[in-house]
Specification:
This protein has 18 helices and 20 strands. By secondary structure, it is of the alpha+beta class. It has a 5-stranded antiparallel β-sheet, with helices on both faces. A 5-stranded antiparallel β-sheet has the order 7-6-10-9-8. The chain has a 5-stranded antiparallel β-sheet with strand order 12-11-15-14-13, sandwiched between helices. Strand 3 and strand 4 form a beta hairpin. The chain is elongated. The C terminus is likely disordered.
Length: about 625
C-alpha cells in the first residue's frame, strides 16, 4: 500500500506537470494570436486611413490646407491608436498635419523618408521606435509613399502610434515574474517590449528568427531569453498582414509555480496517508469486510469529481431523454446566477430565448446521428434578468450503472466574445463606408462610382452618364471664399442625390466641383430631358455667383450613353467628359449629348481656359 501511495504521488505529479505545460502552451498560443490580431487591427486602421489619403491626393494633389488639416485632426481624434497624421513633401517638410500649428520641422533625415524616396514601394512601412520631434515621446511610424502623376516621389504620408498605446495594453496581462511581451519587425528589431528595457535589441541572430520563423509563422518553444538570460517558454506568431512578430514569454519557474505548490500539498497528504496506513494496519482485518462498499463509493465519487474537474470554469448539465435537467454543476451560480437546486427538474427548452428554441430542437433531432456530438450557441436569461450568450456542446453518454441514455452538455459563457465580434464588425463597416464616401457632400466618392458603373455597364443595355461641372467656380471661391464654396457644393450635392434617386439613378462626386450621375436603364434622349430639368433645378437654388454671367450658380452637363462604339465604362466616362468640355465651349449652363457635336467645327480637345473652378 505504501508503494502504491508513492507511485500514485509520482504519477500524479508527472501528469500534473504535463497538464500544466500543455495548459500554459495553449494559453500562451492563444494570447500570442490575440496580440497579433490586436497589432493587425491597430496597423490596419492606420493603413486604411493612409490609403484613403493617398488616393485622395492622387486625384486632388493640392487640397485646401485648412480644410485638409481639419480633416486629418478629425481622423486622428476618432482613432485613438493614431497619435498624429502628417503629409511630408518631397523635401521632408511638413505640408499638412493633424496638429496645430504645423511644426516647423524637417524629417528628410529619417530612415523611413530615405527608404520611400529611394524605393517605389506602395506598401506601408513600419518603423520604430523613434522619438517624435513634436511630442518627444517614443512612437511607431507607419508611412506610405506619395507619387506624382508621372510616378516621381512627391513625399510621404505618416501616421504615428505612441509606444504607450501597446504598453498600456500589454501590461494588463499577468505573465508572472520574468514574463514579457515583445513586438518585433520581421528582421528581428524590437519595436515594443513589455516590461520596457533600457536599450534596444536586435534579435535577428536568435533561434526564433534564424530557425523557427522560417519553418512556421506560429510556434512554441523553450529557450534562453536574450533579455535576461532566464530559461523561458515562449509562443510566437507572425502577423498575417504586416511584417511584425509577436512573442509571449513566461519563465519556466512561473509556468510550473502552481504545479510545485500542488506537489508540496500532495507530499504532505501522502505522508499523512502513509502514517494512517501504519496506524490502521492492526485493524486491517476488520476493515476488509467494508472494502467492497468503500470501493463502490469511491468509484462513484471519482467519476463525479472527474466530470466536474474536466470542465472547470464551465457549467456541466445532464439531461434525460425528455430534456429534463437531472444534474447541474455548482459553476452555474457563477455563469447564470441560479443555484443547482433551482434548475433541477426543469425542461431545458423552457429556459432558452424564444428565438433560439427552433434551432435547439433541430440540434436534438440530429444528435442521435452525431457520434462526436454537436455544438450550438444560444441566449439564456440570468437570475438578474440580463441575457447571456452560451456556447453548448451536446453528447450522448451511457453510465455504467444505468441502462438509459443521457445527454451531457457543457455550457460556456461567450457573451464578451460576441460583443467583441460585433464591435469589430461595426468598426470594419464604418471604415469601409468612410473609404467610399465624400466627406464634404456626403455623396459616394470616385471609388464607389467606379464600382457602380462597372456593375451596371455589364448588366444594362441602356445606360446614360451625366458629367456635371459647376460654372465659374474658381471665381465663386475667389469672390466669396472657400467656406461659401463648400456650402454651395453641399447644397448642390443634396440636390443631385435627391434628383438622381427619384429617377432610379446614382449620384457621386467625381472630384473638385465635378459630379457624375449614372442613370441605369435610361437612353440618351431621356437623359437629355433629365439634364435640362436638373439645370433648371440648380438655377432655382438661387445661389448667387458674382463671377457668373447670369449672376447665379449654374452647371454645364455632358451626356453620354452606352452605344456600340462604347466598349467599357472608362470610355463611357470619357465621352461624357468630352461632351462636358463642349458644353463649356458653347457658353456654359447648357447640356450636350456626346454624338451631337461629332464633326462640329469646334475642337474636342478641352482648352485649359474652359476648365474653371477649383476644389472647394
Amino acid at each position: 500500500m505504501s508503494a502504491c501511495v508513492l507511485a500514485l504521488v509520482v504519477w500524479k505529479g508527472y501528469d500534473a506537470r504535463r497538464n500544466a505545460l500543455a495548459q500554459s502552451e495553449t494559453e500562451m498560443r492563444n494570447l500570442a494570436h490575440s496580440l497579433a490580431e490586436h497589432a493587425n487591427h491597430t496597423m490596419q486602421a492606420a493603413d486604411v486611413v493612409m490609403d484613403d489619403i493617398v488616393a485622395f491626393l492622387r486625384f486632388q494633389p493640392f487640397p485646401d490646407r485648412a480644410s485638409f488639416n481639419a480633416r486629418l485632426r478629425e481622423i486622428s481624434d476618432k482613432l485613438q491608436q493614431i497619435k498624429e497624421l502628417a503629409i511630408l513633401d518631397a523635401k521632408g517638410d511638413v505640408e499638412y498635419a493633424s496638429i496645430t500649428p504645423l511644426p516647423p520641422i524637417n524629417n528628410a533625415d529619417r530612415d523611413y523618408f530615405t527608404y520611400h524616396r529611394d524605393h517605389a514601394d506602395p506598401k506601408p512601412l513600419i518603423t520604430g521606435p523613434v522619438v517624435s520631434r513634436t511630442s518627444g515621446q517614443p512612437v511607431i511610424a507607419v508611412t506610405r509613399r506619395l507619387e506624382t502623376a508621372n510616378g516621381d516621389f512627391a513625399g510621404i504620408v505618416i501616421a504615428t502610434i505612441e509606444s504607450d498605446y501597446f504598453n498600456d495594453f500589454y501590461k494588463t496581462f499577468d505573465l508572472g515574474a520574468g514574463g514579457g511581451i515583445t513586438l518585433s519587425s520581421s528582421d528581428g528589431k524590437v519595436v515594443i517590449r513589455w516590461p520596457p528595457t533600457k536599450d534596444g535589441r536586435d534579435l535577428s541572430k536568435s533561434q526564433l528568427f534564424e530557425r523557427l520563423l522560417p519553418r512556421s509563422p506560429v510556434g512554441y518553444n523553450l529557450a534562453t531569453s536574450p533579455f535576461d538570460g532566464l530559461q523561458k517558454y515562449y509562443a510566437y506568431e507572425r502577423l498575417s498582414l504586416y511584417p511584425l512578430v509577436v512573442t509571449v514569454a513566461r519563465t519556466e519557474v512561473s509556468v510550473l509555480a502552481d504545479w510545485r505548490e500542488a506537489i508540496r500539498s500532495d507530499a504532505v497528504v501522502a505522508m499523512a496517508v502513509l502514517a494512517c496506513i501504519v496506524l490502521l494496519a492492526a485493524g486491517l482485518a476488520v476493515q476488509l469486510r467494508n472494502r467492497e462498499r468503500f470501493e463502490k463509493l469511491l468509484r462513484e465519487r471519482d467519476a463525479r469529481h472527474r466530470l466536474i474537474d474536466a470542465n472547470i470554469g464551465d457549467v456541466v448539465v445532464v439531461l434525460d431523454g425528455q430534456g429534463v435537467l437531472t444534474f447541474v454543476s455548482m459553476s452555474v451560480e457563477t455563469v447564470l446566477g441560479f443555484s443547482p437546486e433551482e434548475m433541477l427538474g426543469r425542461v431545458y427548452l423552457d429556459m432558452m430565448h424564444p428565438d433560439d428554441v427552433a434551432g435547439l430542437r433541430s440540434i436534438g433531432k440530429r444528435l442521435p446521428h452525431a457520434p462526436n456530438g454537436l455544438r450550438a450557441e444560444f441566449r439564456m436569461e440570468r437570475a438578474d434578468g440580463t441575457l447571456v450568450w452560451l456556447e453548448a456542446n451536446f453528447r450522448f453518454t451511457r453510465q455504467d450503472s444505468r441502462p438509459e441514455r443521457n445527454i451531457v452538455c457543457t455550457l460556456r459563457d461567450v457573451t464578451r466574445r460576441k460583443e467583441v465580434e460585433d464591435e469589430v464588425e461595426a468598426l470594419n463597416s464604418r471604415l469601409a463606408e468612410m473609404a467610399r464616401t465624400d466627406a464634404l457632400t456626403g455623396l459616394p466618392n470616385r471609388r464607389a462610382l467606379d464600382d457602380f458603373i462597372a456593375s451596371e455597364f455589364k448588366a444594362r443595355r441602356d445606360l446614360s452618364v451625366l458629367m456635371i461641372d459647376v460654372d465659374d467656380f474658381k471665381g465663386f471661391n475667389d469672390r466669396l471664399g472657400h467656406h461659401a464654396g463648400d456650402e454651395a457644393l453641399r447644397q448642390l450635392g443634396g440636390l443631385l442625390a435627391g434628383t438622381a434617386a427619384s429617377a432610379g439613378g446614382f449620384a457621386a462626386r467625381y472630384g473638385g466641383e465635378e459630379f457624375t450621375i449614372v442613370l441605369p436603364g435610361i437612353a440618351m434622349a431621356a437623359a437629355f430631358v433629365f439634364a435640362e430639368d436638373l439645370q433648371a433645378a440648380v438655377r432655382s437654388l438661387g445661389i448667387v455667383n458674382p463671377s457668373a454671367t447670369r449672376g447665379r450658380l449654374t452647371v454645364s452637363i455632358g451626356i453620354a450613353g452606352k452605344v456600340s462604339a462604347v466598349c467599357d465604362p472608362a470610355t463611357l466616362l470619357r465621352c461624357a467628359d468630352i461632351a462636358l468640355y463642349e458644353a463649356k465651349r458653347r457658353g456654359r449652363d447648357c447640356s450636350v449629348v456626346a454624338p451631337a457635336y461629332v464633326g462640329d467645327a469646334g475642337s474636342l480637345v478641352p482648352d485649359v481656359s474652359t476648365r474653371t473652378g477649383t476644389p472647394a
